[in-house]
Amino acid sequence: MNTPQATARLLRADRAIHGARTARKFLARRAVIARQLDAIAPGTFHVRTVPVWTDRDGERRLATWVALTDALGLPIQASREAHRAARGLLRRAFPGADWTRALAYDTATGALDLDEPTMPEELHR
User: Fold this and answer.
1) What residue ranges do the domains of the chain occupy?
2) Confidence band (pLDDT; 50, 70, 90) for 13?
3) What secondary structure does DSSP assign to 87-117, as a single string?
4) Which of 53, 66, 97, 99 counts the most CB atoms within 10 A of its CB?
5) E strand or H helix that includes residue 84
6) How far apart, in Å, do the first and last CA atoms of the chain sit?
7) Residues 6 or more apart from 99 whose CB is under 8 A from it?
8) In percent, how much of the chain has pLDDT > 90?
9) How far apart are CA 116 and CA 97, in angstroms?
């Protein structure tokens, strides 16, 4: 009886097709997020979020500080609602992220990365 067997060539082709589909989805998602951030605050290139503890009315609460910057790293003048909308957009786009840590989103790469200060390599000695 003839039983079909997947050859290595077919497996590689299947992986290539799957990889291309994944890449197209990633690029489309990155473009949509960049376009929406630009609609919220024109010129936004980086979004940084930092959780901070505040003391309101004698009660400690966790709040989030949001910084919107342009491609040169200069702050963008935006309203409180724009900052809140940018944070909400990223929270919906990355539901599995740990929002209790400092994070940075870069529209060029589409990556949401941990944004903690590090010491330069020269100072490790």
Assistant:
1) 8-124
2) confident
3) HHHHHHH-TTS-TTS-EEEETTTTEEEE---
4) 66
5) helix 80-93
6) 68
7) 49, 51, 64, 91
8) 59
9) 15
